[in-house]
Amino acid sequence: MENIALIESFSEFKDDKLIDRVTLMAILEDVFRNALKKKYGSDDNFDIIINPDKGDMEIWRRRVIVADEDLDFENEEITLTEARKIEPDFEIGEEVSEEVKLIDLGRRAILALRQNLISKIHEHDNTNLYKQFKDLIGDIYTAEVHHVRPRAVILVDDEGNEIVLPKEKQIPSDFFRKGDNVRGIIENVELKGNKPQIVMSRTSEKFLEKLFEQEIPEVFDGLITIKGVVRIPGEKAKVAVDSYDDRIDPVGACVGMKGSRIHGIVRELGNENIDVINYTTNTQLFITRALSPAKVSSIKINEETKRADVFLKLEEVSKAIGRGGHNIKLAGLLTGYELDVIREGNIAEEEDDVELTEFSDEIDAWVIEEFAKIGLDTARSILKQDVNDLVRRTDLEEETILDVIRILKEEFED
């Protein structure tokens, strides 16, 4: 292979991978010197001149002239007879510079050299890619769906970089087709061998926080600060916000008129229900706000155990617990306290109440569990609810709910 053809092939790499001229020259020289070491044992007496822009390269070997009978180191020395073939008036002790053609290295060495060059350029490219995305960890990034696999979606960005969105990092309602644009945060970058693996997440709390920064100008400008974010991806989230400017209503600014500002975020997260609450250093008030939409009667806090007894009227209990227990779970995560619900109700009525588990011979266990998920674990707590509301808040059919109500009513009629 001619010198010019080899250099031209790597000029293509330079254009394709956007390697700067100085870096490309350093890679080329390093690889050529390794090839010379293998061929001649040392590269100390070689000069390499590379011009990737013009597509040419020269390799010159410097050797000292010695008497024919004194030749000991063929790589570093040349006999007077051989030297005078190059220039008739050379004398012993002088230095001869002679050009080495790539063909002199041998065909096998040239093929190995080319492969080594490709490997070095890819290695450089991967190192730069690793550093680039390492700096993007925690930032929102957009890429296009290239391939949908059972355990991950493979994305490709505008520069052709591959990004992995694992199944567990996807919102349960996410459904992607080839060509779809996907937003998420760069969660992690790892070197797998020499190749960086870039991992995206849509389930991270950081993703929701960054969406607030992107969609709400006051958050982006720092006028509103996000104090805490907790979420059950695709189901429910709670975001605590604060502002140092008394003229700004942080909750109102984040939600917008009729939810106009937060609507885009909710849609991006697969209609995830987002509660935005005012942050406060008053623990009791913060827990009260975190349990919204339930109205809390009173709270008893144990700072040592980080537990809080929350007293609620009977009709507020199910609101505090929420569908599937999501509301109380997120409120506990946001405030940092384990919350225990204490019912407040008519004492005579409570004494007359019956635990739902007492009906296990007439009501299936899974049905009882469905009611317990929304905080309804006694007969009277269910009888006080509206049937349509129970259908909406549980995974039970109306017919099943009506059957349960009939059984419970019979208990109290008896």
Largest sheet: 5 strands, mixed, barrel
CATH topology assignment of the largest domain:
GMP Synthetase, Chain A, domain 3
The portion of residues forming beta strands comes to 25-35%
Sequence stretches where pLDDT stays below 50 over 5 or more residues: none
* Sequence of strands across the biggest β-sheet: 5-6-7-9-8
Write the CATH architecture name of the largest domain: 2-Layer Sandwich
Tally of separate domains? 4
Ends distance:
101 Å
In CATH, the homologous superfamily of the largest domain goes by the name: K homology (KH) domain
What shape does the CA trace take?
elongated
Nearest-integer average pLDDT: 84
Radius of gyration: 37 Å
Structural class: alpha/beta
Tell me the total number of β-strands.
Answer: 15
Helix content: 40-55%
CATH class of the largest domain: Alpha Beta
Task: Give the helix tally.
Answer: 16
GO cellular component, one term: cytosol
Subcellular location: Cytoplasm
Domain Transcription factor NusA first KH: 202-279
Keywords: Cytoplasm, RNA-binding, Transcription, Transcription antitermination, Transcription regulation, Transcription termination
